[in-house]
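Hi everyone, sorry if this is the wrong subforum. Our group has a chain we'd like a structural model of before ordering constructs, and none of us has done structure prediction before. Sequence below.
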Amino acid sequence: MKKKLAVLLVFLLATTVYFVFYHKDKTLKYIPENADVIVLADVKNLTRQYISNLAMHPDQWFNGKSNGKNTISIQESGVKIPDFFQVFHIKNTSFSQWYSVLELKDKQQFLKYLQQQKFIRTGKEVFQKEQIFIKIDGKRCIIGTSDLNSVTFYKLFFQNLGKVSYNADSFIDAGIGSISFKGPQIKNFSIDLFSDEIIIKNNSDSYDPAPVISTLQQTKAFLETELDQENIRTFASFFNKSLSDSSHVTHIKAAATLEKVNDTIITYGYDDNFNEIEKKTVQKIIQPDYVIALQSSAVEKTQQYFQHKKWMNARNQFTAIPFQPNIITRTGVGFEIKSTRKPVPSSPLLKENFIFIRNSALLSSSFKSLTAAEKKIISGVDYIFYGNRNEDYYLSLKFKKEELPLILRW
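Answer:
Right subforum, don't worry. Here is the predicted structure as C-alpha cells:
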C-alpha cells in the first residue's frame, strides 16, 4: 500500500511539474495578419531557467525585492500570464511603434495595478505612462508605444486580428525567445540568455564572430563599424527606404571616440544703462571624434545627392552629422568625413560586416532622464556587437562579469 501511494505521489508530482513548467499553449491568437515583425518570449522556459539559476545561488533565496505590503506584483495584477509573451510591429508603421495584447482575469485589480504604477487615464479605458499606452478592451488589454485612441490604429489592428491562426512552433524552436520577420518566408532568429550575454542569431552555426570581436576588443574606439551595400540598405530602411540606393554608397567604414570637453555658450543681456553685455557660460558636454570612409559606385552622383539634400555645404562640412565641426573630402573611391577637433586614426579594414559599440562611462552619464534601475542595466553592458556574413546574422549584448547571472541581477 505504501509503495502504491509513493508511486501515486511521484506520478502526481511529475504531472504537476510538467503542466507548470513544460506544457504550453502554443496558439498565438493576438497577432494581426498585417504584423511584419513578431517577438516571442517563452515564459515557461524563462521560469525554468530562473529557478535553475536561483537553486545555484542560495544566498538569493530570501533576497526578494519588496516595496511594501500593499505592492502589487505582475503575477497579482489581474493579468493572465501567457505561455508565450507576444510583441509585434505592424507593417507600414513607424519603427518605434510596437504592441502586445494580454488577457485580463480581474479588471478591477488591473486598474489598481495601473494606479500603483502611476499610469494616468487619458481617454475612455486608455492609460498612459511616458511613452507606454494601455487600452482596456473588454477582457483584454492592449499595450503599445503609440496612442491607442487613434482611428488609424483600430483599422490597422482590429481589422486584421484573428484572420490567420498562428502557432508558436512557426516562430520559435529553441532558446528563451525569438524575433521573426514575416515576408514571402518567415525568417526566425533565436534569443538565448546566458550568464552574462544575450545572443540573437539565426539557426546557422557556420558564422563564428569570435575572431572579429577579439580583434575589435583590442581597439580603444567607442564605435567601430564596417557595412557593405546590403547592410547599409537594411539599416537605412529603418529611416529612409531610398537613402542607400539614391546616394550610391556601397560601403561604409567608421570609427568614433568619446570625450568630455568644455562647451562655451554665449548669451547677451543688458546692463542698467541698456548697454549690451556678452555673457559666457562654460559647461561640460560629451563630444565624439570620428572618421568615416564612404565608398560609392558613382562618386559624382553621390556628391550631387549630398548637395541636393544640403548635407554638404560650401565649406566642405558634412552637415548631416550634427556634431560639428567636421570636413568632408572627396577621395578616388568616395568620401572621407573627419571631425576636426581631434583626429581619429583609421583602423585596419577587416572585410567583415559589423557594428561594435563599447560601453563608456561618459555615455552612461549622459542619459539624464533614465531611472536608477535603467542606468544600472546600461552601466552593466560591456559591448554590443552586430555581425553578418552571407545569410548568417548575429547580435550580442555582452554584459560585465558578475557573481550573479543576468536572470538574477534585475
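For your construct planning: The chain has a mean pLDDT of 85. Residues 203 and 268 are 61 Å apart (CA to CA).
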